[in-house]
C-alpha cells in the first residue's frame, strides 16, 4: 500500500515537472517573439517612444523663437529643448518625460518664466 502511494506521488511529480517544462519552452518562445516585435517597433519609430514634452513657445516670428530658445538654454541648461516649424508657426518644446507627472514637475518649475507653457503628448527620445 505504501509502495503504491509512493509510486502515485512520484508519477504526479514527474507529470507536473514535464508539463512545466512545456510551459517554460512556450513562454521562452513568446518572449523571443515579443523582443523581436519591440525591435521592429523601435526601428519604425527611430528609437522614439510615447511620452510628454512641454510647449513653451509658438509664433510666426523666427527671431523671437531663437531669442526665447537662447534664454531658456541659459536659464535651464539641464533640460533639452527642441525647435520645430509647423506652418506658419515656429515652436519650442522642452524635455523628454516618460510620464505626465514628470512633465508637470518641470512645468511648475518653469511656469514663472513661461506662464503660457503647457504639457503635450508626443514622441520623445530615450534618455541615456
Strand order of the largest sheet: 2-3-1-4
H/E order of the elements? HEHEEHE
Figure out the total of helices: 3
- Count of distinct structural domains: 2
Strand content: 25-35%
Low-confidence stretches: none
Helix content: 40-55%
> What would you say the CATH architecture of the largest domain is?
2-Layer Sandwich
Q: What's the CATH class of the largest domain, please?
A: Alpha Beta
Describe the structure.
A hairpin with a 2-residue loop joins strand 2 (81-86) and strand 3. This protein has helices at 2-44, 62-75, 100-110; strands at residues 49-59, 81-86, 89-97, 118-124. It is an alpha+beta fold and 128 residues long. It has three helices and four strands; from the N terminus they run H-E-H-E-E-H-E. The chain has two domains: 1-44; 49-124, Sporulation related repeat (Alpha-Beta Plaits).
In short:
By secondary structure, the protein is of the alpha+beta class. Helix content is 53%, strand content 26%.
Task: Describe how the helices and strands are arranged.
Blueprint: H1 2-44, E1 49-59, H2 62-75, E2 81-86, E3 89-97, H3 100-110, E4 118-124
Antiparallel strand pairs: 1-3, 1-4, 2-3
Keywords:
128 residues, alpha+beta, Alpha-Beta Plaits, 4-stranded antiparallel β-sheet, elongated
